[in-house]
Amino acid sequence: MRYFIELSFNGTKYHGWQIQKTGISVEEVLENCLSYLLKMPVNIIGAGRTDSGVHAKQFFAHFDYPYSLPPRFRQKLNSFLPKDIKVYNIYLMQPKAHARFSALCRTYEYFISLGKSPFFKEFSWQWLSNPPDIAKMNQAAMILKRYEDFSTFCKSHSNNKTSFCKIEYSYWKYKKGLLCFQITSNRFLRNMVRSIVGTLIRVGIGKIDSKDFCQIVESKNSQMAGCSVPAKGLFLKSVSYPNDIFL
């Protein structure tokens, strides 16, 4: 039987979602708890990988287990998980449902705190200079939907089969002292969102204009992109799936 787990996590202490040799990951912690509670080895597959320090408001992972889950299993699982990981739901799925490959789209948010803030510093990039021009950044952000190849914004030496993505939404908003960039795509490359944000910031502070931004995207050269912004401001906001894979 195939199950989907819907969860969220604070990624501050973790080396991303995927199991790493260099440090603890969210996947490792969740897998260990499931294996202990179900009294058998459990392998889980996530909706994607997140970089070290990146957070998730909504994340999905699937695992196989031959029986119905014990009563109140979600509550018991949460009691074993650390406070920075929470499971919201566990769904019984169609046998071929896949947390990664069945996903239709994913949405990320990046937060920039305008000025010093003791409340936002853990979950946003603090911007202490003059605010970037949000109108100019949105003009450039809209350009992203024209393109499919995002090699420019992919981390060097990443093992990607393709650098093609379909961006559906890309927009900056102002929220009570925070700049929030939201982007939706069918898939994302490694470090892609943080690199896009870093390049759009260059537009916002007048270092480059929209024409330059187009040339950077078309260059397919990661050396042309802006600096990758800090991981702590990045959240996976949501993952969408077709309804027919849920039982």
From TrEMBL:
The question of whether Lipid biosynthesis is a record keyword is answered with: no
Does the record carry tRNA processing as a key word? yes
Please state what class of enzyme this protein is.
Answer: isomerase
Pfam families on file:
PseudoU_synth_1
Example GO BP: tRNA pseudouridine synthesis
Q: Which UniProt keywords apply?
A: Isomerase, tRNA processing
Gene3D superfamilies for the chain:
Pseudouridine synthase I, catalytic domain, C-terminal subdomain, Pseudouridine synthase I, catalytic domain, N-terminal subdomain
Residues annotated as catalytic:
51
Listed name of the protein: tRNA pseudouridine synthase A
Q: Which organism is it from?
A: Candidatus Walczuchella monophlebidarum
Encoding gene, per UniProt annotation: truA
